[in-house]
Specification:
Elements lengths: L5 E5 L6 H10 L6 E5 L13 H18 L3 E7 L3 H7 L6 H22 L4 E7 L4
Parallel strand pairs: 1-2, 1-3, 3-4
Helix pairs in contact: 3-4
Length: 131
């Protein structure tokens, strides 16, 4: 079985796709990862607001580990995230609040993954939509 480098969890935002590609290409990962794309990336797979999506991601990750023999997950969230805004509701929203939401999703996902996939290496990244 061919061993791939990683699985990548990223957001569905069309503005974000070229940034993800550029980031992964710079890491020399083109063609070496499986992909799971969902609104909010880590936010979408951890926040209670999106609870129905959680098991889908975990099942997909488990399948990717089995089929592609991966041992690393790269989680890529982005600034100006619509899922973060939905999660925040009608309360005040700014980059500080958004960053806190991203960091919480990373912490929550790390905790889940440590229990379910203790040997999986996890890397977290927040990309800017600017540039």
């Amino acid at each position: 079985m061919k061993k791939y480098e990683a699985m990548v969890l990223s957001c569905i935002d069309p503005r974000f796709q070229p940034k993800v590609y550029k980031y992964l290409n710079a890491k020399k990962l083109t063609g070496k990862y499986s992909s799971f794309t969902i609104a909010g990336a880590a936010i979408g797979v951890t926040a209670k607001k999106f609870k129905k999506w959680h098991s889908t991601f975990l099942d997909n990750l488990s399948t990717s580990i089995k089929l592609h023999n991966i041992n690393k997950l790269i989680v890529i969230n982005h600034e100006d995230c619509g899922a973060a805004k939905i999660l925040n509701g009608k309360r005040k929203f700014n980059s500080t609040i958004e960053n806190r939401i991203h960091k919480k999703s990373f912490k929550d996902l790390d905790k889940i993954l440590n229990k379910k996939f203790p040997t999986l290496k996890v890397r977290f990244k927040i990309l800017s939509l600017k540039d």
